[in-house]
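Shipment paperwork, digital attachment
Item: protein structure file
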Amino acid sequence: MHVQHLQIAHPFVLSDPEWIALESIEEETRHFIFDETMLQALRDRGLVEPDGALWRVTQTGQKRLNERD
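Attachment content:
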């Protein structure tokens, strides 16, 4: 069994990759290193939303970023 199968996602806890992706979106980085799967996962959790061709951090996403700092 892979370690990732043992991890349990909690709706209020961001993993390091999720946090990095969310922070990258907030900072409007030009070189987003994650694929569409990460954006969809963050969207499903209500942390980001599409804004035309771009993505933006929602109020919930901003709250999670602020809590992590």
